[in-house]
Amino acid sequence: MSIPPESPSERNEEAPAEVFQSNTHHPPAPADELFDIKTTVDPSYIISLIRKLLPANVKCGEISLGYDAHDASTEGPKTENFDEQSVNGKLYFQNKHEDVAVGEEDWEESGCILWDLAASRTHAEFMVENFALEVLLATLMVSKSARITEISLGIIGNLACHDVSRRKITSTNGLIGTVLEQLFLDDAPCLCEACRLITLFLQSEESALLVEALQSEHILCRVLWIIENTLNLQLLEKSISLILAIAESKQDVATILLPPLIKLGLPRILVDLLSVEISKLIEERLPERYSFLDLILQTVEALSVMDEYSQEICSNKGLFQLLTQLIKLPDKADFVNSCIAASVLTANILTDAADLALEISQDLLFLQGLLDVFPFASDDIEARSAVWNILARILIQIQKTEMSPSNLHQYVSVLTSKSEVVEDELLNYDVDNTSEDHERSAKLTARSFALNGIVELLSRWRTLEDQVKGNLSMEGCYVNEGDVDKMLHYCYKYTNSSAGELMNEPTIYKP
């Protein structure tokens, strides 16, 4: 029943009308009692659903839900339909016509219909105008049913997808605090809806009030505890999405919430989660877990580009090893987004920790896995630039190394086995012209350094004696000399092209 912000599903728009037609025990109001709003659902029927969500037996007089449809402008409940009660000095009303409290099953039915209706902006605005939020707040405060709490949070979550109703949520006294209290429940569906609702607010213009309440160490500890301990896949996704929303949010949100989260161990938790997901990926390819891997990597990447936290991320040796392990995995098609994210993150880390390039320069499997990322990153300029950047750093290290003919042959074998991949990438390569001059220069320079490194290795290999080449190929590391010549040709071609473009660039960046 969750929906993306401002994008109610087609089912949510159309299905309720059919449901309502079949619910003969909830007949529509007479024509003279209809409201003047554009909706396929009778407004008085929506009000009747909201009434059914009120806590059993006691009806709050401050919530004027007792009026007839044609008396919508009348303030307060129509007292002829209600008995007055006094509870703790406050005046309440009990509906005379509701002798039996609404059962949980009927409550759930009404709540689920409202959950769907809240996906529509028109219905959502009508609901908040008619005290749906006050009713849901009262329900959350007294409910002992996990299912009722989940539905209440779900309705509020869908209401939060629309600007007007979201602003009404922030102005409903006590609602935000009550929602945050639900994070301490032990029910996974309730926690999923609470995390979704919090995430929606963090991504909105109304985040300030939530951030003020959320910055409590007690609450942040609970969020991290959920991430670290839940075995529920949906809850894991929702809770990580919450952290990602913080990392990618406006500067003031990140400034307030990230320091305590970092202090409470967020980087360690993210690396531990990444380790678990990569281990599962190696042992068994489970498509339902790929999204978690993507979310974790996106969150780490968001932290890695922040000046305040980049050093802590980039100095984590365990993280770097996990990223290289992921890039080395074969058959990337199923989890390609994670490999692209890992490549970008690796490039970011190497920018701050260039010495790590020496370690991966000696790993032929990593070089092969890195080149395999190119075809999947064809539509992502930043990802392709990241691969060229890593490749340039590796080849610069290789050039500094004295290699035996056997090692040289192995490197050339890997490069020529991916010659078509590299050629296609060069044919399709396009540096983003909207980039700042120094960024564009850095991308061109990284590619130029990488191509020069390839040329240097291939040229060095060609100087080997034919007998040595033949013996090494017979040992199982085959190199086709025609592929070497072809690769040299287009590397020379694009190296010269890059040099021509760079002559007019004011800033040169060396990886």
From TrEMBL:
Keywords of this entry: Nucleus
The protein's organism comes out as Nicotiana attenuata (Coyote tobacco)
**Protein name according to UniProt:** Protein saal1
Which locations, inside or outside the cell, does it occupy? Nucleus
Extract the ranges annotated as region (Disordered).
Answer: 1-32
Family classification = Belongs to the SAAL1 family.
GO CC list: nucleus
Q: InterPro entries, alphabetically?
A: ARM-like (IPR011989), ARM-type_fold (IPR016024), Synovial_Prolif_Regulator (IPR052464)
Q: What is its main location?
A: nucleus
State the source organism's domain of life: Eukaryota
